[in-house]
Amino acid sequence: MRETFKTLITDFQERKLDNIISREYDIPVGSEKIVSLVGVRRCGKTSILFDIINSLKKKVPSENIIYVNFEDDRLFPTELGDLNHIMEGYYEMRPEKRHETVYVFLDEVQNIAGWERYVRRIYDTLNIRVFVTGSSSKLLSKEIATSLRGRTLTYEIFPYSFADFLKAKGIKVNFNSSDSVSYIKNALSEYLTDGGFPETVLQSADIKRRILRDYLDLIVYKDIVERYGIKNNSLLKHIIKYSFCNIGTLVSLNKLYNDLKSQGYKLSKDTVFDYYSYLEDAYAVFSIPVFRNSIKEENRNPRKIYSVDNGFKGVYDAFVTDDFSKLYENAVFLHLRRQTPEIYYYSGKQEVDFYCVAEGKKVLVNVSYKIDSPKTRERELNGLLEAMEYFKMSEAYLITADEEETFQQDDRTIHILPLWKWLLG
Predict the structure, then answer these.
(1) Are 133 and 53 in contact (CB under 8 A)?
(2) Where in the numbering of this chain does the AAA domain appear (predicted)?
(3) How far apart are CA 271 and CA 161, in angstroms?
(4) Mind listing the pLDDT tens digit for each residue in 208-230?
(5) Which domains, ranges and CATH numbers included, belong to the chain?
(6) Beta carbons of 354 and 365 less than 8 angstroms apart
(7) 224, 276 in Cβ contact below 8 A?
(8) Which residue in 160, 107, 161, 116 sits closest to 138, CA to CA?
C-alpha cells in the first residue's frame, strides 16, 4: 500500500490542473485548522480543492502538496491502518520536507472507517495543513464535530450557483448590456430545469438526464444503502421520487407513512423518518420548518421540502416545465441555503416562503413566478407585509419572472425583482 501511495502522490505532483473554474467560496489556505468541505456527490468539491492547489502552487513547491482521492480504484480496499503509509511513504521520498509545511488534501475520505483518528493525529504531530472532503453531512454534524473537536473549519459545498453556472458557460454579467441580459435570461431557463451540477453544464438535455440519474444511483447506493444497510430499496426509491416531485410543498411524514401503508408497504413510522433523514444526511434533500418560538411547535407542523439541485426534479417529473413556480422557489431556497442552514417559512393569516438571518441581516422572501393577476399580487404582498410586521422588518423581497418595481407602504419597502437579477445581486 505504501508504494501505491507514493505513486499516487508523485503522479499528482507532476500533473497540470487545467480548466478549473473558480467558485464563489472563500476557503482559507493558511488556516491553522483542518479545512473540511462537505456536500452532495459530484457537486464540485474536488475542483475546489484543485483551485486551492493551483493557488498554493504560486507560493509553494508542488513537492509540498499531497493529494489522495480515496475513490481511486487502486486504493481498494483501504483500512484505517493503511493511512499511516501516506505520510511515511511521502517522507521516505522527501525526508527534507519534515522541516517544511506540507499541504495534505484527502478527497472523499469518508470511505475509510475511523479516518478522523488518523487526521487528528497527523494534524497534531506533523508540520502540515490538512484539507478533507466528504459526501455526507454526517461529516459535518457528527463525525467532524465530535472527533475533530474544535480543530476544524467546515464549508458546505453545493452544485453551481447561478453566478458559477454563467461563468462555466462563459456568459459575462453586465446588467446594462441588453446582449448580456438576453444570454443571462436564456441561461436561467436552462439552470432552472437542468440544475447546476458542474459535469452537466455543457451537455445536451438527454445526456444531462442520464448523468443526473447516475448521480442519484450513486447517492442512493453509496451514501444510503451501503452506509446504513438498507434492505427495502423499493421503499427508499419511492420516498426519493416523492421528495423530488414535491419540492416547495408542505410535507407531513406522518401522512406519507399512512399513504405508503395504504399502498401495501410493510413498514413502521420510524422507517419513513429514518429513510428521509438519510436523504438529508446525503445532502440530496432539505426540509425547512415553520417559524415558531419553540422547537416543539416547529415539529408539530409540516415541513417544506427542497432538492439540492433543480435537475433532480426532472429525473422523475417529465412535465417539470409545467410548474416553473416550484423551480423558482427551489432556486431561491438554494441561494439562501448557501448562506445559512437556518431557514424557515412563515405561516400566519398568509404564508411567506422564506425567512432567515443571513450574514447578520434578516431576510424575508416570497416567490411567485407570475403576479399578473391582481389577486395573486395582493396575496403575495399582503403575506410579506404581515410577516414584516411580525419580524419587525422594513424590507422584503418578492421574486418573480419579469416584474421589477419597488412597492412601498408606510415605512415598509418590498423589492419586486426578477429571479435572475436577485440571484446575481
Answers:
(1) no
(2) 32-166
(3) 33
(4) 999 999 999 988 887 889 888 89
(5) 2-157 (3.40.50.300), 161-322 (1.10.10), 339-425 (no CATH)
(6) yes
(7) no
(8) 116
